[in-house]
Every structure is written in structure tokens, then in C-alpha cells.
Amino acid sequence: MWTTPLDGGWLELADGRVRAAVGPVPAALPEDAEGFVEFGHALITAAPLGRQARGAEDGGFRGMPDTIAALLVACGDEGSRLPPGPELPPPEHEPRALARSLHVMHDLGDLADCGVLTHEDGVFRGGPALMLALVGLAAPRRGGGPDRPALMSGGARRIQGT
Whose CB among 19, 26, 58, 115 lies 3.0–4.6 Å from 54's, allowing a Cys bridge? Predict the structure, then answer.
């Protein structure tokens, strides 16, 4: 659970020890309402950015780029319902689609476990701070290149089953 603070620069790992670090935004207690909100937004931003940079075996996203598409839907009014409803073909007809869906569900479940998303009755929901982080994640990097996420056209609809 300390991956996000480590990725965000609030913790550092050296010589097998974890130490507190300054981070890009100072950590704040709830008594400092403005600072606490700013710190919370920074944590929410660091979570998907750090996971996108990591390999799946090291706590990173497993279902890219479908995970980003599902997260964008999760930030909308209806949220992201996973697993999708019965309108999708049975899994024996689409084993790759089922595997992709399971990877996305795992990624969203991880983000719900650390508080970036909520998950209730099969619906994942994210807020405005996550949407801003996703815009930064999906934005083209200068010069393009292999580190740019390739958002799939219609990926969210395929995952959602609509």
C-alpha cells in the first residue's frame, strides 16, 4: 500500500529501508483543509501515473490500454460496471476479451483497495481529481514515442458491453 507514496516521492527506499521524503506536495493533516485536499489530489494523481510506469509484475496496470478507458468511464456519471452485463457474448466465444476484462477488473480493484476509486454493487466510480490525472496520463508525450499510452477507440464501450 505504500507504492503510491513511493512513486509520488513522499517515501524513498534506500539500503533496504523506507524513509519519509518531502514529495512534490507537502503531506498535510485534515486540520489543514486546503493542504489536505491538495495532498489528496496529489496522491490520487500519483496512483495511476505510478502504476502506468510499472510493469504488471511490480504492481503496475495489467489491462492497459483498456484500464484507462474503464477509468475514464468510471469518472463519468454512470461509473464503470464490471463485470459487464449479459449483453456480451459468452466467454467461450471470446477468451481474449474475457482475459482483458479480468485484467481491467484487477486493476480497478487495486485502485479501489487504495481509495482512488469507490466500488459498490459492481460499479467503480472515480472523481474529478482522478479524471485530471487520467487526462495527464492519456496526453501525448512530446515527440510521441513508445511511452505514450495507446487508447483504443471504443475501448470503454467494449469493456462496458455497450
Answer: 58
CB 34: neighbour CB atoms within 10 A? 8
Residue 67: closest CA among 3, 75, 41: 75
**14 φ/ψ angles, rounded to the nearest 5 degrees:** -145, 135
State which amino acid sits at residue 39. Answer: F
8-state DSSP, 89: P
Question: Would you say 122 and 55 are in contact if contact means Cβ atoms under 8 Å apart?
Answer: no
**Model-level pTM?**
0.74
64-116 pLDDT tens trace: 889 999 999 999 999 998 776 555 555 556 778 778 888 999 999 999 998 99
Strand partners, 19: 12
Give the integer Cα–Cα distance in Å for 24 and 26: 7
Length of the chain equals 162
Radius of gyration of the chain (CA): 17
Query: What is the C-alpha separation between 152 and 2, in angstroms, rounded?
Result: 30
pLDDT reading at 57 higher than 90: no
Distance, CA of 149 to CA of 138 (rounded, Å): 6
Q: How confident is the model at residue 156 (pLDDT cuts 50, 70, 90)?
A: very low
For the record, the C-alpha cell of 131 comes out as 479524471
